[in-house]
Amino acid sequence: MVESPVALLLSEAGSRRNAMTLSFFSEVAHHPTTLWVSVGQGCYTHQLMQESGRFSLALLRRGQRDLALRCGTVSGRQADKCAALALYRSADGFLYLAGALACVSCRIRSLHPAGDHTLFVADLLSGEFDTRSALYPHLLTTDLV
User: If you average pLDDT over every residue of the chain, what do you get?
Assistant: First the structure.
């Protein structure tokens, strides 16, 4: 297993929404501030992101292990994972997770097929972070084992 930070990818299109555990994401550039996320093409989240052209990313802290496992083991097609999350709307209307280390609003710039996944490259529009984040280590993939 590769050690990397864990986040929730929050997506919505119309009245449908979903939360998906994600560990493959990274910064692409500083100017404009851009990141990429990798999402399986058969995932419900993939469909919502393609329809809406946007998503938010919530970086998880170590105490959110159970939340990451719940959102990573059930499909959003079978259950409303967002119903059990402490979500709120950011000033620009994106879904954010209360208690996350940081949340960012993203607009998709381009899509790049990569095998059975798609790399979504997105511009960061805005974000919020917990000013106490230095006190909380971020959740790593190795914490999920």
Answer: 89
